[in-house]
Amino acid sequence: MHSKAVVYGKYVFATGQKTFLLLPRAVVVQPELTTQLKEKMADILFPEFEEHFIDHPKGRFYTRIGGAMTAPAVVLLHGFPETHASWHNIAPALAQTHRVVCLDLKGYGRSCVVAGDPAHVEYAKRTMAQEVVDVMSTLGHERFTVIGHDRGALIAYRIALNWPEKIQKIVVMDNLPVSKVWEIMEDNPLVIPHWRTFALPAYAPEERMTQVYLEEILRVHTADGTLDCFAPEVLADFRRSWQQPERIHAFCEDYRAGAWQDVEDDRKDLATGKTISVPTLVLWGEVFLGRLSESPLDCWRSTFIPQAQGVEVAGGHFNSEENPQETLAALQAFLAA
Questions:
Q1: What is the pTM of this model?
Q2: Which residues are catalytic?
């Protein structure tokens, strides 16, 4: 696969030009979220949602849950380096018709953190997918729709591949199959270079992953190169995670698994012709994956989801924050079909 020459933020896509992203290594320490700020965030961002910690053999998983208890269930899975708070523009509207579970993934937000292992199995997407299935089962949802963005999208399609009986519908937002991403990077090492950087052995990536660095990662993946699309309360929730070394390690383990276990799982399933047959929506931002020569929809149709539907929305990588109107409209139409 060959991508177009695209300058995106400070990354150069598919050109021979070498670009270095030089970032200061200082950490700007943000204060811990106060009880008052937490209550404000709940009221403003997730009105009428309840907080729940779900017990699991790995530890406790944090959720915000809203919507009628008898409504069809949907779980929202965030990406890197975010938390469940990234869904605040979407979740309240979806809760009008669904039981919405906004989950902090293992290692992220307020959910449990587990140390990595030499084989990188602990943060493999099949492991994290099992945890999502477990949490939903504990909540009484044996079948549900899963909507995942970025790293959450990788977990979403792994659930659909490994536990198809659990899934009603699936939405993958602004990501590609792991194996396809690595094919693109092998063709051009300048594409999304942080996938390589964060997958390096411990602990050089952990040392580099400062708050300044993480904020830059957010900036270069927005269409306008700023953090303006992120509400202050949301950024405060993200930064809270970024201050904790054990979570920084978990982020890196997520990427290490993405370079090893996840690729192998993809290749095994592709070799056996395993596919996803439940209704699937692929959604992506025009200024990010929309600039590749092969569309995200074609990538998914040629690998795991031959019958997928596709929607491109204006904006960069962070669809629900940069363009909540188009993103929500696409999700609601798909869920209602």
A1: 0.90
A2: 150, 317
